[in-house]
Amino acid sequence: MSSADAAWLRMDRPTNPMLINAVLWFEAALDPGAVRDRLQERLVDRFPQFSELPNTSPPRGPRWEADPNFDIGLHVHHVALPAPHDEGALRELVSDLIAVPLDHARPLWSVHVIDDFRGGSAMLVRMHHAIADGIMLARVMLTLVDGPPDALGVKAPAHGSIVPRPVSDLVSLGRRAAGAAVHETFETVAHPRHLEQIARTGVQDAGILAKFAANPSDRRSALRGDLGVGQRVGWSPPLALDDVHDLGRAFGATINDVLLSAVTGVLGDHLRARGDVLDEVHAMVPFNLRALEETIPRELGNRFGLLLLGLPVGIESPVDRLLEVRRRTAAIKDSHEGAIAYGILAAMGATPSAVEARLIDFFTAKATMVITNVPGPREPLALAGAPLEGVLVWAPSSGSLGMSVSIFSYRGQVTVGFLVNRRLIGDPQPLADALPPALEELGRAAARGAVR
């Protein structure tokens, strides 16, 4: 097991289990037996971690070992959705199921086949982050669909380039920064000037290391505070990808910019309605470090960094907010930050648990949420003959973070989902329901010619 994977394994907390959760819904009923057979063939037989247990105590560090008692029937469950069998009922059931931790005495994944959803079926897939990152697991999950297992999947999006220096150099830089915490007090290591001394590889990279340490923690708010056990989910209606693209083109922005700006506006309204006046909150944004054309490796694993993106929740004008989001995302596209962050994570996995816990608390205090954006297949897919209608994949929130936002596109539509800590937000569905009006407001501004 790599040290980065080990870091995710040890990051579990009762308030934030390190599980990637995915919900898929289908236009027809799924055959649970056919789904189980497909999981055995495409998941268990191809990728060893799905029939292995993590051993955290061997002398050479954590490793995956075969589970002698593996039984796929203990991982695939069949349940019926309660009345009224609609999206509200599915959100309630998913929220209840994801509150139950996985059994660490078994391989760290589970699937629930859910009957009676709007005349079809749904499926909840849960996998531990130690197995792989969210982009890789989304690709693995979509190899389950009908057809050749490697013909379909999602692209591994790069949120910025990793040039001119090799990724390995940047990862090593991050490892040195975090590894220093083992030998010196963390308060000293966290000082920006000390990180600059550790870097010694160029002004730009020293500045990135300083950013990790010097960026102030996000304030307590209606989105950030003490966490409880359990999470809840909500998601938007499918949004036409072409419409979002046209909005972006009107303002010289990307689809990602438009959706991030809409999410930022919804969150800003939520904060102001609860008396929180903030200029910005920060999001951890996963940054893919794999080559876009890379095939799915048998060993899976984690290979991504995290970018820290400020969301201007204090800007109420939809046009001004979009232009500011566009400016900020453009500024990080060529950053080395993601590779350095991966190196920090890898080094953390090799530190004592107490040091890793302090590092996690230190870095996650800088943000309020995780936001992932995964472009899925454009062509329609099916599983065991049931047409796939929609998908969402949520990354876990680590440390003190209490919200994960998922943006997933499929078949010409994009869906935005919220996974939140129950203590912070009792029901995230109003946030998701507010997204279409936010985009419509931006469309009206474009129609008025309010483009700069």
Automatic annotation (TrEMBL):
Pathway it works in: Lipid metabolism; Glycerolipid metabolism; triacylglycerol biosynthesis
Record's keyword terms, sorted: Acyltransferase, Glycerol metabolism, Lipid biosynthesis, Lipid metabolism, Transferase
GO terms, molecular function: diacylglycerol O-acyltransferase activity
Cellular component, GO, one term: plasma membrane
Domain O-acyltransferase WSD1-like N-terminal residues, every copy: 1-258
Catalytic activity: an acyl-CoA + a 1,2-diacyl-sn-glycerol = a triacyl-sn-glycerol + CoA
Gene3D superfamilies named in the record: Chloramphenicol acetyltransferase-like domain
A Gene Ontology biological process term: glycerol metabolic process
Residue intervals of the O-acyltransferase WSD1 C-terminal domain: 301-442
EC number, UniProt record: 2.3.1.20
Pfam families, sorted: WS_DGAT_C, WS_DGAT_cat
Name of the top EC class for this enzyme: transferase
Matches recorded under InterPro entries: Acyl_transf_WS/DGAT, CAT-like_dom_sf, O-acyltransferase_WSD1-like, O-acyltransferase_WSD1_C, O-acyltransferase_WSD1_N
NCBIfam families: acyl_WS_DGAT
Family: Belongs to the long-chain O-acyltransferase family.
Protein name: Diacylglycerol O-acyltransferase
